[in-house]
UniProtKB/TrEMBL annotation, chain A:
Keyword annotations from UniProtKB, A to Z: Membrane, Transmembrane, Transmembrane helix, Transport
PROSITE patterns given in the database record: ABC_TM1 (PS50928)
InterPro entries the record matches: ABC_transp_perm/SBD, MetI-like, MetI-like_sf
Hydrolase among keywords: no
Signal peptide from the UniProt entry: none
Annotated family: Belongs to the binding-protein-dependent transport system permease family.
Name of this protein: ABC transporter permease
Residues in ABC transmembrane type-1 domain copies: 32-212
Record membrane topology: Multi-pass membrane protein
Chief place of localization: membrane
Listed transmembrane segments: 42-60, 67-86, 92-110, 192-219
Organism: Micromonospora cathayae
TrEMBL record, chain B:
Keyword Transmembrane attached: yes
Protein family (similarity comment): Belongs to the binding-protein-dependent transport system permease family.
Membrane-spanning intervals of the chain: 31-52, 59-81, 93-111, 146-168, 192-217
Extent of the signal sequence: none
Protein name (record): ABC transporter permease
ABC transmembrane type-1 domain sequence ranges: 27-210
PROSITE patterns attached to this UniProt entry: ABC_TM1
Key word Calcium present: no
Principal location class: membrane
Compartments, as annotated in UniProt: Cell membrane; Membrane
Species the sequence originates in: Micromonospora cathayae
Keywords, ordered alphabetically: Membrane, Transmembrane, Transmembrane helix, Transport
PANTHER family given in the database record: GLYCINE BETAINE/L-PROLINE TRANSPORT SYSTEM PERMEASE PROTEIN PROW (PTHR30177), POSSIBLE OSMOPROTECTANT (GLYCINE BETAINE_CARNITINE_CHOLINE_L-PROLINE) TRANSPORT INTEGRAL MEMBRANE PROTEIN ABC TRANSPORTER PROZ (PTHR30177:SF33)
Amino acid sequence: MSFRLSYRADPGNPWFSWQYVRDNSDTIIAAVGEHASLTARAVLIAALVALPLAVAAHWYRSLTGPILALTGVLYTIPSLALFAFLAPYLGIGAVTVLSVVALYALLVIVRNAVAGLSQVPAEVREAAEGMGYGRWGRLLRVELPLALPGILTGLRLATVSTVALVTVGVVVGRGGLGQLIFAGFQNNFYKAQIMTGTLLCVLLALLLDLVLAGVGRLLTPWLRRRLP
Amino acid sequence: MSAIEQAVVWLNDPLNWTNPGGVLDRLTEHLTMSAAAVALGCLLAWPVGLWLGHTGRGGGLVVLVSNVTLAVPTLALLTILPLTFLGFGQPSVVVALAVFAVPPLLANAYTGIRQADPEARDAARGMGFSGWQVLRRVELPLAVPYLAAGFRTAAVQVVATAALASFVNGGGLGQIIRAGFGLDIAAGGGQILAGGLLVAGLAILVELVLAVVERLVTPRPLRRARRRAARRAASAVTGG
């Protein structure tokens, strides 16, 4: 299966080339695999750290301000600068990319989770208390489920932006599809390679977003029922 | 010598600042590119956002623009644009950065107008204001806190993202970091760290300065409630 486009006598340097995709499928698949794996690991690590932080911020009001302020300041720091801070210590490789990318995802998830938890109606919380739920029971059975939409929004935002951010990892040699894009730029501006890498990035982001949206629908059936 | 000591040594060398391509040159490039990009972004996003907000249509469009921009890697756009008619050099970098400035500007302009008190809007209409007058004399002043918050988010984001222009030799402070990575990590570690400190310092400085400016342009009665909401509208699309 191929498109007519690639049958031109002189292919020149087109933006889209099916020929390129076929000839380099191994490299492309490897890059997609690395990209997806880096993204998934980073978001997972971020979520595992972020949720306890958000709960801590929710339980202890005095922690909310500092935690949100800290995430705000960290979010201001450019990604390249963060790579620069960590690379001399963590070296060149996947660990550095994961740390940087997970940190940014962490900030997004914490913010949204705190917002979600704080939007649980006070009456609901009091009702749960009146029914004899302790702090943990209330958190696990009432507050977290009700905050789930907010948390999932955070996860989705974090995932999409992480896919885009992983590309910057080329600076330490582990950029997944960023590697592809940058290599195309250096190889005499090979447009097809750059475009393929970019489109795959966007597609991967959309795909992961859809998966998370689906998971969210499955986890929050009560939101669907309420709709007319 | 640890990386931190190396960084201090690097920053203490006056030649690293004043040489051609030194810190001062890069800082000028960085700020010029960022300013141009934010200006271009405002020119594009504000009229559209204000108009969409005024007519009450296009909420879906605003969300779509934000989401798509979030998914497109900065690096890809910085790599693709120089290969188009824009050519290599600053114009393409400025356009790429402006693309990432548009979503916060647009979202906040739209939200700002939509948030204007409907009663004030109705009163203005009842006084015989035309649609254009309502926008200019009622909605726009009420949206100023949102516009300021959007501007701050966009500007900080652009200054942060401009560091990536170094990937396409577009100049800016990121170039120092990239040059450091070009060396061995043991040899370039100090320069990498020094560059990182400069870039991060600049971003935080811009954030602080604009926070003060934002506070100054927001009328006192509007300060508390509005700022938080506006930042929330924009926080979805920050990063880079």
